[in-house]
Amino acid sequence: MKKVTIELFSDVLCIWAYAAQARIDQLKADYGDRIELHYRFIPVFAAARHRIEEAWQDKGGYVGFNRHLHESAGTWSHVTLNPDIWLRNPPQSSQVAHLYLKALQLLDDQEVFSEHETGDYQGRTRFEEFLWRVRSAFFRDAENISSVATLDTLAKSMDLPLSNIHRQIDEGAAHAALHLDTEARDRYLAPGSPTLVFNEGRQRLYGDVGYRIIDVNISELLRDTQSGEASWC
User: Fold this and answer.
1) Calpha distance 40→28 (Å, rounded)
2) Residue 65 needs a FRET pair 20 to 30 A away by CA distance; which of 102, 115, 162, 229 works?
3) CB–CB of 231/202 below 8 Å?
4) Mapping DSSP to helix (H, G, I), strand (E, B) and coil, where does residue 205 land?
5) What is the DSSP letter of 123?
6) Which residues contact 59 (CB under 8 A, 6 or more apart)?
7) Rounded to an integer, what distance in angstroms lies between the CA atom of residue 120 and that of residue 153?
């Protein structure tokens, strides 16, 4: 069976990536085993305070950024945005959560979790569910996801192995994995968050892209049986 590999580049503090999760869930429902998703994290908000204060210093600072996000999300019905987003418990960096997520990815790759531990997350993998809970903790609940204590609490709610996760971080494996994500971003010239990369970098979709556009790209790649042929999509 032909399979399309999709590399998803995002920052957990990016509101567009938060909104796009519904499209990823739909892709999984529509295509199942015909797609393979690789999640990669990039440091758009690695220095969150500096980024916001510099970009929004003449537009109201954090208050202006908060207003901008609510205006952007005003018509969204599939996600919830906290009224105090970026005003209450503003995170210093997305990188803490990214390292935590890479540690969990590594444990998944090592098949640490047995089948009876996977749980039922409405079509999501254990990793995808934790990623969603991290994003929801910030955007919906205004929690500080640059705090390890906050991430540990989320992990405990899913019975994840905290000691194993911390070991992947403490021994450097998660750092190495996150660095490879940055290298992949540079290799594919991924412009920001979220970016979907198909066909070994030959196709990229960046930003708030509609589901039908993503769908037609995948359909075309699955239809094309000529190995190495340039896609007309």
Assistant:
1) 17
2) 102
3) yes
4) strand
5) T
6) 65, 68
7) 19
Q: Given a cut of 70, is residue 214 above it in pLDDT? A: yes
Q: How far apart are CA 211 and CA 189, in angstroms?
A: 22
Query: Cα separation of 144 and 142, whole Å?
Result: 7
- The DSSP code for 124 is B
Give the count of domains, the chain: 1
pTM equals 0.91
| Mean pLDDT, the chain, whole residue set | 91
Confirm whether 131 is domain-assigned: yes
Written as six digits, the tokens of 210 are: 């509609």
Q: Which range of residues forms the domain containing residue 70?
A: 4-223
**How far from chain centre, in Å, is Cα 228?**
29
Give the sheet arrangement for strand 203-206, strand by strand.
35-41, 4-10, 195-198, 203-206
Taken in order 147, 92, 102, 168, the sign of the CA dihedral is: negative
Tell me the pLDDT tens digit for each residue of 101-121: 999 999 988 877 654 454 567
Task: Dump pLDDT digits (tens) for 65-83.
Answer: 999 999 999 888 889 999 9
Q: Which of 71, 20, 11, 18 is nearest to 209 (CA)?
A: 20
Give the helix/strand (H/E) hosting 6.
Answer: strand 4-10
pLDDT computed for residue 58 by the predictor: 94
Q: How far apart are CA 200 and CA 208, in angstroms?
A: 21
Asked if residue 231 is part of any domain, the answer here is no
The token pair that represents 10 in the structure block: 């995002």
> Any idea how long the chain is?
233
> Containing H/E element for 24?
helix 15-31
Q: Tokens standing for 163?
A: 């000691």
Say which DSSP state 225 is in.
Answer: -
